[in-house]
Design brief:
Elements: H1 2-15, E1 24-25, E2 32-36, E3 42-47, H2 60-73, H3 81-85, H4 88-101, E4 108-113, H5 116-127, E5 132-137, H6 142-150, E6 155-158, H7 163-172, E7 177-183, H8 195-204, E8 207-212, H9 227-231, E9 238-243, E10 253-258, H10 259-268, H11 270-273, H12 280-294, H13 296-322, E11 329-330, E12 337-343, H14 345-357, E13 360-361, E14 364-365, E15 375-380, H15 387-400
Parallel strand pairs: 3-13, 5-6, 5-7, 7-8, 8-9
Antiparallel strand pairs: 1-2, 2-3, 4-10, 9-10, 11-12, 12-15, 14-15
This protein binds pyridoxal-5'-phosphate.
Residues 115-117, 120, 141, 143, 183, 187, 212, 214-215, 243, 245, 253 line the site of pyridoxal-5'-phosphate.
Length: 401
């Protein structure tokens, strides 16, 4: 019965052109990656899909640090952090991140998690208790949404970047603890939340602002500290989740906030307490990748990334001018995530397949990840792309137009 039940659901997914599948990467994360397709053949593709924005995943110093960490600590951490899994390297990564955020959050402390998904579940469920009300932005990442589903607090959604709507909701709330929860850079749209206005609301209504900076860390700001640095924000009311598998090139995540918040997470976050700590070698390597991110290499790569963004946007804008009847629309994004909204599910998958025949991999994103009728190519740029790579993408899109 179960198999028939599941097969009927799989058939329904297929009928809507929504079937998802994995492909096997035969080489490491890089703009040129050898990938095995569903037909079994391996090809080198020019990739516009990874979140390794600074190209640190394949940096030799990061790989060396990972190997050194493995020689020092071996493989796994062996236990949860509160038992015996919290290594010297875990401690140093947390201390480093606490110092990074001190200019933006007074008394900042960081607490590490294995993934961003876990960190988001932790912060939203631990703080979103029966005394709280959660105000959640409509386009938040799935992990924040799952956090709100698990939290005891009632959840009120507000519209995308709708500051006035949120103000009205906060004004009407009688909750003792108010938590505003938002992505900083929206992962499927690439636009940036109006954090200064949201923080002003938090100050006015005695609320707290939880910011998921998965796509801002390493990318935004002069030093790569992310969206708080980008906007020059400083407040005790800021609680930031950062992920370390994207621009930091490795894996893991952290919550950084006033030390009372992180002290409480350590006591109360079930996925911190009941889950094995990340491998210490990964933490050891993070000390290297975070130093690269903040240093001269990071600064140069952030500048290059911004130049690539501008070149791609100009190229696609010119293409759309030449083809005014095309229904495509380039999202208004100031980040390395540059979505090209195509419309239908079948259309976007056909476009992605046509690009792949030309040797380019740009993923099509369909509902429910994005709204119905807004299926899109999610183009992501990395600092390891050359300007010629961007030109090749624009030329290939023109050929498909
Ligand atoms: C990727 C992502 C996460 C999850 O982080 P992982 O470390 O990959 O689990 C959380 N929030 C946003 C906005 C993301 O893009």
């Amino acid at each position: 019965m179960l198999l028939e039940h599941l097969q009927a659901k799989l058939d329904a997914i297929r009928a809507q052109d929504l079937t998802r599948f994995t492909r096997i990467a035969e080489t490491g994360t890089a703009p040129r990656q050898t990938v095995r397709g569903s037909d079994g053949t391996a090809r080198e593709l020019l990739m516009f899909c990874s979140n390794d924005y600074l190209g640190l995943a394949a940096h030799p110093a990061v790989a060396d640090a990972l190997a050194e960490g493995a020689r020092r600590y071996g493989g796994g951490s062996g236990a949860s952090p509160l038992v015996s899994g919290h290594s010297r390297a875990h401690h140093e990564v947390e201390a480093l991140l606490g110092r990074w955020f001190e200019p933006h959050i007074p008394n900042a402390r960081a607490i590490g998690f294995c993934t961003g998904y876990m960190a988001n579940l932790a912060v939203v469920t631990a703080l979103g208790d029966g005394d709280a009300e959660i105000f959640s932005e409509t386009l938040n990442h799935a992990s924040l949404i799952d956090g709100t589903r698990l939290a005891k607090a009632p959840v009120t959604r507000y519209g995308h970047c709708d500051v006035d709507g949120l103000r009205a909701l906060l004004a009407a709330s009688t909750a003792r603890i108010k938590l505003i929860v938002t992505d900083a850079v929206f992962s499927m749209d690439g636009d940036i939340a109006p954090l200064p206005a949201l923080l002003a609301l938090a100050e006015d209504f005695d609320a707290w602002l939880i910011v998921d900076d998965a796509h801002g860390l390493g990318v935004l700001g002069e030093l790569g500290v992310g969206s708080l640095e980008h906007f020059g924000l400083r407040s005790e009311r800021l609680i930031v989740v950062g992920t370390l598998g994207k621009a930091a090139g490795l894996a893991g995540a952290f919550v950084v906030a006033h030390e009372t918040v992180t002290d409480y997470l350590l006591q109360a976050a079930r996925n911190y307490i009941f889950s094995t700590a990340s491998p210490p070698a990964v933490e050891h390597a993070l000390l290297t990748s975070l130093a690269l991110m903040r240093g001269e290499l990071g600064r140069e790569r952030r500048m290059h990334l911004r130049a690539l963004q501008a070149r791609l946007r100009a190229g696609i804008a010119a293409l759309l001018d030449r083809h005014p009847s095309l229904p495509w629309r380039l999202a208004d994004s100031q980040s390395p995530i540059q979505p090209l909204i195509v419309g239908g599910n079948a259309e976007v998958m056909a476009l992605a397949a046509a690009l792949e025949r030309e040797g380019l991999r740009v993923p099509g994103i369909r509902p429910p990840t994005v709204p119905k009728g807004e299926a899109r190519l999610r183009i992501t740029l990395c600092a390891t792309h050359a300007q010629a790579d961007v030109d090749r993408l624009v030329a290939a899109l023109e050929a498909c137009a």
